[in-house]
Amino acid sequence: MAQSFKRSPKPTLGVEWEVGVIDPVTRDLVPRAVELIDLVNDRHSEIHFEREFLQNTVELVTGIHDSVPSAVAELHDDLEALRVGANELGLKLWASGSHPFSDFRKQPVSAKMTYAEIINRTQYWGQQMLIWGIHAHVGVSHEDRVWPIINALMTKYPHLLAPSASSPGWDGIDTGYASNRTMLYQQLPTAGMPYQFGSWQEWLNFEHDQATSGVTNHTGSMHFDIRPAAKWGTIEIRVSDATSNLRELSALVALAHCLVVYYDRKIDRGEDLPTLQPWHVAENKWRAARYGMEALVITSRDTEERWITQELDELIDELMPVAHDLDCAPELALIPEISERAAGYSRQRRLFQLEGDWKPVIDKTAAEMWELRPER
């Protein structure tokens, strides 16, 4: 049932990062996440790991922070502890939007009732969720601001997805998509784009309908790409693929943090927040998933278009004053670096085309976790 929104007096930040556990020989996913979590938590009880949908996944979860550097520093320390445990168990850590060749039929789901219910309800489509993402929670002061900000954030959907896109491979093939994860995840009946609710009351009415019809009894919650998290008083942004490394993660979390605060300040000034027609939002989502950093995106209600790289360059400049206030200017400034290096999907695709095999791609992606470190 609907929860009251726990208002956050400050734009606090929390981050969740889904990381896969792989066999260093086969490079396939292995269902040993619980064993690894228990080993590390026996030594570091203060670290917050979550057992995720699949038994091959560890979710690193930060506490509540005021800034991106603080949250990323916590993730860095947690990751180091996890690496020690993985080494002892003969495992490797790896992160990406999807695994390029693992067979979903051989990957068991975690022993959690809501997960079992999702599989029971969705069958074939739900079983395919070999996908990983980044979730950023940003505190919001009042529930009446939540949906105007979410609707505005949806106009920047490709800006949040394209730099993170890192899931070109699936079932042994190159799908041609930058983020195949995005296309897979929206198969779930409670996932995908949120409806453009006009008020908090409309959201409460929707939650009531979902509970009455039994939808949320099966799934635990709605899995929208961006959603309110009433329990924490946050907006939860779930658009981005999981990055292979903390350096790029820090840039994407900075972008998310700055965007929420940027739109929140517009409300303070009495300014209208931007929206796009739902069909334009849907088209932009698809274009970013398909083309990544090469996407041409729709930027206005008049159907004007621009290249996402142009959009990102100007957006970073526009957000930089907010970034300075939030102490994440160096992290936000890493967004153009992703384009210069080539985004994760492009790096993976290039190596696969060169080698004709996904295993070197897994090796290189796993190595990036330690090669591409945060700015500070």
From TrEMBL:
User: From the UniProt record, which GO molecular function terms apply?
Assistant: ATP binding; glutamate-cysteine ligase activity
Question: Which Pfam families does the entry link to?
Answer: GCS2 (PF04107)
- According to its UniProt record, the EC number is 6.3.2.2
Give the record's keywords alphabetically: ATP-binding, Ligase, Nucleotide-binding
**UniProt-listed GO biological process terms:** modified amino acid biosynthetic process
Q: Which InterPro entries match?
A: GCL_type2/YbdK_subfam (IPR050141), GCS2 (IPR006336), Gln_synth/guanido_kin_cat_dom (IPR014746), YbdK (IPR011793)
Q: Matching Gene3D superfamilies, A to Z?
A: 3.30.590.20
Q: What class of enzyme is it?
A: ligase
Q: Which reaction does it catalyse?
A: L-cysteine + L-glutamate + ATP = gamma-L-glutamyl-L-cysteine + ADP + phosphate + H(+)
Kindly give the SUPFAM superfamilies that the UniProt entry links to this protein: Glutamine synthetase/guanido kinase
Annotated membrane-spanning segments are none
Entry similarity comment? Belongs to the glutamate--cysteine ligase type 2 family. YbdK subfamily.
**Job description of the protein:** ATP-dependent carboxylate-amine ligase which exhibits weak glutamate--cysteine ligase activity.
Q: What is this protein called?
A: Putative glutamate--cysteine ligase 2
**Provenance organism:** Corynebacterium yudongzhengii
